[in-house]
Amino acid sequence: MCKTANTGAVLTSTPVTYSVVIPAYNEAPFLPDTLAAVGAAMRTVDVPGEVIVVDNNSSDETAGVAQAYGVRVVFEPINQISRARNAGAGAANGKFLIFIDADTMIPASLLNRALEALESELVCGGGAGVEINHPSRIANTAVELWTQIGKVARLAAGCFVYCRKDAFEAVGGFSEEVFASEEIWLSLALRKWGRANQQTFLILDDAVTTSARKIEWLSGFDIAKQMLVLLIFPLAVRRKRFCRTWYNRPNKDRK
Fold this sequence. Notes:
By secondary structure, this protein is α/β, with parallel strands linked by helices. The protein has a single domain (18-211), classed as Spore Coat Polysaccharide Biosynthesis Protein SpsA, Chain A, CATH 3.90.550.10. It contains ten helices and eight strands. Strands 3-2-1-4-7-6-8-5 form an eight-stranded mixed sheet, sandwiched between helices.
């Protein structure tokens, strides 16, 4: 089995079992650590996999960084997270899909357990716990609270979603009607598909570590205002202007 030097992903000419999809909009600073962590995790897996970075119309060196790590790069011109995820899934060769964010570190144990769950044919998909690399007690408490809610409600966090590709395609993938919360709608759809096919949607105990950059980029007021808008007006996720927290970058309000 021929592998690239940096990630452990097999070359595209080799049949693969799973595909790691990473949507990336101006993520050049974060991709190296993410791809290094993915590569380390993949080298512990016995079955072959691939990594696909979806350049979501970036204006920085996102595509070049990904190419330097020897992974596949797909271009999605419309700047929308769900479209980027779907573009990566559409290009994927694996029967299993692993979606992670470009600022997220995935441990080897999580990748192995997700693939084992899917191989069992008892699990159609799921998510994992989330940790952040930030000293803020409030932020860590909020993330821990979300993790517990996700486990109880069986809802995946966007920074890590795993599923069968046939199930993903059957439910129509990530909703392109929303600019945020697409992982919630996918979780609900996959849970329904799973019930009809005697499979479960499983939130694994292992956790990914994701950056706390929104805390560093935005004020507490800005984050609270964003959450309040979506809480009061849930349908606001259908408009990009109401989801700026997911798309803006410091001092560079790109649309």
